[in-house]
Amino acid sequence: MADTLTTSRGLDVPRKRIDFAAAFHRYGTFVIFVIILVLASYQSADFFTERNITNVLRQTSGVGIMSVGMLFVILTRGIDLSVGSVSALGSVLVAYYIQQYAPEASIGLVLLAGAACGLVAGVTVAYLRLPAFVMTLAVMTMARGFAFIISKGQPIMAGDNGQVLMTFANGYHFGVPDPVILMLVVFAVAGIVLNFTKFGRLVKAIGSNEEAVRLSGVAVPRYVLAVYVISGALAALSGVIATGRTGVGAPTVSTGAELQVIAAVVIGGASLMGGRGGVFNTLLGALILGVIANIMNLANVPGYSQQVFMGVIIMVAVLVQQGTQGFRFGR
Amino acid sequence: MRGNAGPEFPSSVTASPRHLLPFAREKGFPSVLAIPMPDLVAMTGIQKRFGGLAALKGVDFSLRAGEVHALLGENGAGKSTMMGVLSGKLAPDGGTIMFADKPVRFGSPRDAIDVGIEMIHQEMALAPDLSVAENIFLGSLPPMISWFALRRKARVLIERLGFAIDPAARVGDLTVAHQQVVEIAKALSRDAKVIIFDEPTAVLAARDAEQLLRIIRELSASGVGVVYISHRLDEVLRISDRMTVMKDGGFVGTVTPKDTGVNDLIRMMVGRPLSALYGTRIAHDLGAEVLRVEHLSAGLRVKDVSFTLRAGEILGLGGLVGSGRTEVARLIFGADKRDAGRILLNGKEAALRHPGQAVKAGIGLVPEDRKRQGVVLDMSIRVNTTMARMAPVTSGGFIRWAKERATVMKLAESLRLKMAGPEAPASSLSGGNQQKVVLAKWLHVDGPVMILDEPTRGVDVGAKAEIYTIIHRLAAEGRAVIVISSEHQELFALCDRVLVMGEGRLRGELTPDLYSEENLLSLAIGGKPAPSDKAQEATVH
Lengths: 331, 541
Prior knowledge:
The complex is a heterodimer of chains A (331) and B (541). Chain A has 331 residues and is mostly helical. Chain A has a single domain (30-40, 48-321), classed as ABC transporter involved in vitamin B12 uptake, BtuC. Chain A has helices at 2-8, 20-43, 50-75, 83-97, 103-126, 132-151, 163-169, 178-196, 198-208, 210-214, 220-246, 257-267, 279-298, 303-322, and strands spanning 156-157, 172-173, 176-177, 248-249. In chain A, the strands form two sheets. A two-stranded antiparallel ribbon of chain A has the order 1-4. Chain A has a two-stranded antiparallel sheet with strand order 2-3. In chain A, a hairpin with a 2-residue loop joins strand 2 (172-173) and strand 3 (176-177). Among the domains of chain B are: 3-116 and 245-270, Rossmann fold; 289-525, P-loop containing nucleotide triphosphate hydrolases (Rossmann fold, 3-Layer(aba) Sandwich). In chain B, strands 6-7-8-3-9-10 form a six-stranded mixed beta sheet, sandwiched between helices. Chain B has a six-stranded mixed beta sheet with strand order 16-19-20-13-21-22, sandwiched between helices. Chains A and B meet through helix 1, helix 9 and helix 10 of A and helix 3, helix 12, helix 13, strand 18 and helix 16 of B.
């Protein structure tokens, strides 16, 4: 629609009119976030307590970190269904490695393993041009399988060496939980990469029009591969945090997390058609999910009902956020 | 008939189109048709505003049954808006529409289709994965489909148009020309009384365009009123009964081909004479050989193509669409894989297996499909301009905003890019200015070879002239330029020589003394041997 309007106007000057749809697209997530916070404070007096807020933030950190990787993938018009499983693999692997190696080495190895999962998905998607949905689905199955193989189906105790992880995952700096600080750092770095570097710009451009970018001489597959590697590594990192929280590496960690992560990115206004999305809004998207889960817990909504509510709320949030393109009347 | 009826038209066109109004309106003059027919469609005083901008300022337009009425004007003149109103896509803010002497109001395209007004779009609205028959009857499929009956009915419609297209074929597998036939058959299946063609021949090669024009004439002979929007003025003059020119959302005049020439039309559209549409060659000498292509082959699309190109030379690649012109360009640019052949740059063999290598070697490609291949529509002019060569505007991977902005502003200025600012998205620009963004991208790369594939397709007359000037400048600055075009006059006006392709092969070469549509077409179709064998080197006039 915008296009036909443009061509039928006499000048090449965009209209000087506040574009409500665009404004809402930019600030919609923020508006939803504020509304949810207000609702939360009405719902329960316990919500705006330091303890609860800290809790919400900490619970969001895993999904939040994964959603950064997912944002990059979705910006290139891809999807990564493997993040939950890779996170579980990370959780199991770090508990396994840390009994033999130094914590730094263990974490490094785990991040490499996550990156390797991303590499497998990325090569098939970027170079062999296979559909991301199916390829990451395959990696999802494999990663979860490896997590079970390594742990023999049982949770792995991180042991005494794992104490470092627990100290980190349950520690605080300036009154903020360390995993939350880590999440914010990841978001900050991603924000810088996305907005101020060549890499970030080309990732967005590839999602908007891959062919035009390729015909500008850009080695598109390299960038596409990179986003899956980033997503894999960040998923593994979230697994490390999960292990740190409990001191146990479990192959069942983050089951179904990929859907929450995708929901966070989409509530954050990113387009599954690529090219559109931002870091700050993705953070808000992750927080919105965290707050909703928290409200339902505070309101003692039963677990199964929570799933239904969560689905409905995701739908409504996305409708509000992205459904501004007008209603289609069929006939 | 009109010539003696008022002031001489061409000279009377001055700054204000208002001058034309008294005499140019059709009313009060004898009809062009032998028997005066009542208007099938009469639009009067149509107004439309988009935000603060008046896109239509009270425009009149009428159409009789059985007439071809062309609607002309530069991009942005309001033609598409006007037809959007007629086809129910846009609701007018003022004015009336009469259809068969009854006032009508269209709330949606469906309402317009119901009374028999159909629009054939520039970008076709077909489902590529469905069959021809399914596409034709898409809006009116019965709940239970009898494939046999459907295909038979489709075949009848297609044959009425003088074509033999398999109704079971997948639309995506058809040529663009045949797809257009399917669109027209679709309109006919719904018993169209008015068919609006929005630049139907822009994507067609000369022969296909010819066929389409024939269909349009037959449609009008059978009583359908045809509105015809096109930038190809020679075509318009040949096919139309009447021509209405719009400019800046206003009505300039309605004229007949009998007493109007191409130059008059251009003057009406642009408001100033454009005697030198194609620009003039800037005198310069040709330099050394820059590009040498030897025995280039790729599947069935390109077979054993060899040629050379010198610095400062403009080489044309002509032929019909599908003759392998675009494929040759893409092979040189590394966008597709070649099976055999060598490409030498400055005497040294160049790898060119992917576009990255070509860009590094200094080859630029302005691709044929601007919106899909040329620009990233959602992104800013600034981002689009520097995309092919970011090194000068980045350090350590970080973008240096001030430097990038300055670079873009400088290029925009030198190309006379009309934009709100470098941050405006490419989608906010007209076709001509989008093309300038693509040109700016390659000027920023600043390589020795530039390949332009249909550089003026869908671009209005004013921007066309500017692009021609830019192309002349590229050559004068010592670049080696290849121009691919389906507009033969464009090739003849721009190029030092023209290579003609047909069925993937180089069929011959035309030097300026041999430039003519006939020569080019006979080479392209391959009926005759090349009329000139002597010309291996460029002959410059």
